[in-house]
Every structure is written in structure tokens, then in C-alpha cells.
Amino acid sequence: MPPAPLTPERILEATEDVLRRYGPAKATVVDVARALGVSHGSVYRHYGSKAALREAVTQRWLDLSHAELSAIADADGPAGPRLRSWLAALFAAKRRKAGDDPELFATYMVLVGENSTTVDRHIETMIGQLARIVEGGVRRGEFAAADPAATARALWDATNRFHDPAYAADWSAPGIEAAFDTVCDLLLRGLEA
Question: 53 lies in a domain?
């Protein structure tokens, strides 16, 4: 049976495995190529540099939650429950990433630090989704927000403890769910029209 074709997706999967095994400081493109059974030149044909490969891995990791959250942001129905659902889904996704694979999560934190433009794009995507929820709430007369984009940014900042990886150690602490609910309640009351 011939080997599977070398695709960007296969390369990214192998890169995750290599990063998990060696960590970001020691993982090389040669290690990724070896894991795939190809030359490092074959990997470079898809990703022009080690930095480009690491950025693609970071982007892939951050994109994993975009589809689920976008579906919540774009759903019909009252904005308040959608906002709470979106924030809860984001918090749950971050907790899963930190808890299910702590080695890879730690690796991604290093990569995220290296790829600030990738992270900036991710944050803008997330804030854009929040803005769509706020705009819908304003249209329906549920929310009073003069500037939905600024309100979305404030919501992002106010919930930082529940999605910023710097707080990952807190995400399994006793009482974190109650703290999350309290923050959501406060934010929703503040948005009421």
C-alpha cells in the first residue's frame, strides 16, 4: 500500500506529535519530516520555514474553537442566553485544551508567545463574534449598547480569567464555576436595555 500523500494537515498533525514529544525548544523540522517518513525538504515545500510551520500549528490550534463559537454567535434567539452560551463554550474549550493534553497546552503557550499576530487575529475573531451577539441583542431591544464593538471588547476583557491561558491554573479551582456564573450574571444585567 503506497504511503498517504503528504498534505498540510498531515504535516500539522505530525508537528503536534513532535512538539508534544520534544517540546518547542527541541522540536525541529527534521524531526517532523522523520515522523512522516519524508525529507525535510518535503515539509519545507508546504511550509517555507520552521517559523511558518509553528505559526500554522498555532493557527490550527486557535481555530479549533472558532466554528462552534461562530455557530452560537450566529444562531437565532435571545441574545442573553446566546452570550452566556458563547462564553461558557469558550471557557469549556479552553479548559479542555489545558486539561486533556497539558504537555501540548504548555507547548502552545510558548508558540502563542512567538506568534502574536496569529493570536491577535484570533482575538479579533473572538471579539467579532461577541460583537455579532451584542448587535443582535441591540436590534431585538434586549441590550443597551451604544457601540457593540467596544462592548464586545469590554466583554472579552471582563471575562479574561476564563479564557486567557495565563489563568489556566485557576480553571480547575474549587468555586470557578460559581465565579464564572457570577461574572456572566453581572455582565448580562449591565447589558440589559
Answer: no
Is 0.90 topped by the overall pTM? Answer: no
Looking at the 3D structure of the chain, how many domains does it have?
A: 2
Domain range for 90: 61-191
- Confidence (pLDDT) at 51: 83
| pLDDT exceeds cutoff 80 at 167 | yes
Tell me if 16 is assigned to some domain. Answer: yes
Backbone angles phi, psi at 82, to 5 degrees: -65, -40
- Over 70: is that where the pLDDT of 115 sits? no
Q: Which 8-state DSSP code applies to residue 192?
A: B
Angle at CA of residue 2, ends 17 and 60, nearest 5°? 30
Which runs of consecutive H residues, i.e. helices, occur in the chain?
8-22, 29-36, 40-46, 50-63, 66-74, 79-100, 102-114, 116-139, 148-158, 176-191
